[in-house]
Amino acid sequence: MTLKDLLDRLPPTGLDGLAFPRGLLGAFRRKSISFSNGLTDETSIVFWFQSKSFTIDLRLPDGAATPLVDRQGWVGDTLWDEDRQHMSWRIARSYQPRDQWPEPASLRFIGNSVIEFAPSGAYVEDWRQQCVRGPLLGLRLISLRDGDDSPAQPMAGGLILAGDHTAYAQSRLPALDETLRSAASLEQALANGIATEQQIESYDVSVALQGGRINHSTQPQRLGQDIFSGDWALQPDGLIALTRTVDGRTCHLRFVLDVHEPDFRFIRETPVTPAASQWMEDQKQHLFRHAIVAR
After folding, report:
1. Whole-model pTM?
2. Residues in contact with 23: Cβ distance below 8 Å, sequence separation at least 6, in sequence order
3. Is 29 helix (H, G, I), strand (E, B) or coil?
4. How far apart are CA 111 and CA 180, in angstroms?
5. Chain Cα centroid distance, residue 114
6. Does residue 136 share a domain with residue 71?
7. Does residue 284 fall inside a structural domain?
């Protein structure tokens, strides 16, 4: 079945037990990152997709032209510190052999923007919600079987559908990821023959915007492909199966349902005091003359 057919059959899960503010659910594009030294980057392609318990992240400084060893992407467990209002991530396996962003995120909300402050003061990031309304689906990848006779191998990854936007992540095979841990960097892994370019690039993080065709990916050859490709199935044990072709091989993947909200309204506005609301109404000719929804 197609993913649309699967969505029609999946029951809603609700959001009971959501550990962090509801405004963090969805798909976010990084509008900018400003550093303590006065530099600002508004060019790099960076996306953050948030499900109920996990995150998918893609970072490409030069888009499709980003060199193999400079791409970043990961899937991780989302952790929330209520007292500090900090979000952090437990990342077991990522595109890079080391965590490039070790600081937790101190978050503030304004309109459709989530402002992330590094507690150290090193940087601040401006993230923009891309979604308005639509399905919210999180599927966490747990295993892959290469062919019909091979044993299942544990995998990291998942799929997050937020409105019209989708992110998909699929780690390398476990033995390869473990081998790469011995390298200080991907450059060293290539230089020392620890991994080939094809093996490094086998960690897939892809993003499709406004539909199912991939716009950005750690695998540039996937651009324009259908991010939902394959045959989906809801299994009797409640797990979700996907059969798809990977590098010419038939692979069977299994997912756990993390969240399914068929019609979710993503948060794009934040509350203000009555006095502030009246001030904006009184001054709107000046305040909103050139204002637009920035995404």
Report:
1. 0.96
2. 109, 114, 129, 267, 270
3. strand
4. 41
5. 15
6. no
7. no
